[in-house]
Amino acid sequence: MQMIRKRIILPIGIIGFVLLIIGFSLKAKKESVNVNADLVKLEFVPIQTSDGWGYDIMAGNKIYIHQQCIPAVPGNKPFATKEDAIKTAEVVIKKIVSHKLPYVTKKELDSLNISM
Fold first, then answer.
1. Is 19 domain-assigned?
2. What is the mean pLDDT of residues 62-71?
3. What is the distance between the alpha carbons of residues 90 and 77, in angstroms, rounded to a whole number?
4. Chain-wide mean pLDDT for the chain?
5. How far apart, in Å, do the first and last CA atoms of the chain sit?
6. Are 106 and 75 spatial neighbours (Cβ–Cβ below 8 Å)?
């Protein structure tokens, strides 16, 4: 009788454990699928630094990107003008909304006439 219980309990325990793991993995996938950038309000805020300009990209009320210097340019050179920071922030937001990586290339900065 005791041998039969061990033969039944062990497979049931293993099946239960496997179902538990599957349940957690499905829940994790479901949470990552529910994150939808289209539902989050994105906006930029120009920020004045000690020697120039930068920008914050806000997702809801939280800072998503804090950019104090010109991206794609070596060093930590800030934007020369508030307008340059705004133009770059607008490009970054368009990329995020288009589900692209939010990076800016030197070529894009040149096309925006960003002074470097």
1. yes
2. 95
3. 19
4. 78
5. 83
6. no
- Token pair belonging to 114: 């960003």
Two structure tokens written together for 16: 């239960």
Tokens of 30: 């479901």
The model's pTM is 0.66
Q: What is the pLDDT of residues 39-65, one digit of tens each?
A: 778 899 999 999 999 999 998 889 999
| Strand, helix or coil for residue 110 | helix
Identify the H or E element spanning 54.
strand 52-59
* 77 and 112 Cβ atoms separated by less than 8 Å: no
Nearest CA to 92 out of 57, 62, 49 is that of: 57
User: How many domains does one find in the chain?
Assistant: 2
Residues 54, 75: one domain? Answer: yes
Q: Which residue has the tokens 């705004």?
A: 86
Phi, psi of 19 (to 5 degrees): -65, -35
Residue in 114, 108, 101 with CA at minimum distance from that of residue 53: 114
